[in-house]
Every structure is written in C-alpha cells, then in structure tokens.
Amino acid sequence: MNNCAHTQRVIERTEADSELLVCVKCRPKANSETPGDNDGLRPGRRLYDALLAAGAPEGVRLRAVECLQNCDAGCTAALRGGAGKWTYVYGNLESALAGVLLEGARAYHAAPDGLIPWRQRPDHFKRNCVARIPPAEFPDPLEESDT
Description:
The chain has 147 residues and is of the alpha+beta class. It is built from four helices and five strands. Helix 2 crosses helix 3 (98-110). It is globular.
C-alpha cells in the first residue's frame, strides 16, 4: 500500500480548497524577445518558484503540473476549486507577474462559484484568459426559461 505524503495531501483536499496549478514545463513563447536566463530553469518553473517564495493565499494550494497544453501562449496556470466552482486557465504569464497571479487566486478563492466580478479581476486576467471551464455539475442553459 502506498502511503506517501503526496497521496496524503490529495486525500486531505476538501471542497473548500482552491488550487493554483502552474505548468513547470512551459518554455518562452516562440516570438518572445526575452533573453533566457542562465539558471537552466524553464520560465514555467521560474514562475512556480516565484509563487512558492511569495506564499499562496490562505485556502489556496500551489501545485506544479507537467503541462497544460497551452504552449503557444507562454507560461500557463489554472485556478480550480470545489465541486461548484468554475475553472480558469490563464496564459502569457512570467515570474514577474507572480503577485498578480496570487492576487487573482485570492479573489478566486473568495468567490463561491469561482466567478470573479469583472471589475475586481486583475488586468492580466481580463486579457489572458485561455479558457473558462464549468464545474462538473451545472444547470443546462438550454433548459432555462427565457421568461
């Protein structure tokens, strides 16, 4: 039986938790003119390390992931929560935007359904949302009445 710490963390996750998933395999965008750093780390890993150093907001777990399949948009992260929350995927991130991402994660966690009011969203979130994914259970918009 596998009883590693990682398995324990997954089992202990509650519906109230929010997660900030950061692709640590992201490379610079193909058309990026940003010079690479000589530390040997990919930009996605640098972003993750910056977030880790800053500390995640209360109620938000920071997790590294292999790939979010958004390679054309540079570094990518996703915010997901409990059963009733929408999931968001954001691109064009870099380690210098760690504070913005944490601000957005804080607002996401505070929103019961994950929908951050437009005026409260960080500007980067407004312009770089790759996808908004509904929760597992959601009302069918075609069955709702127009009256």
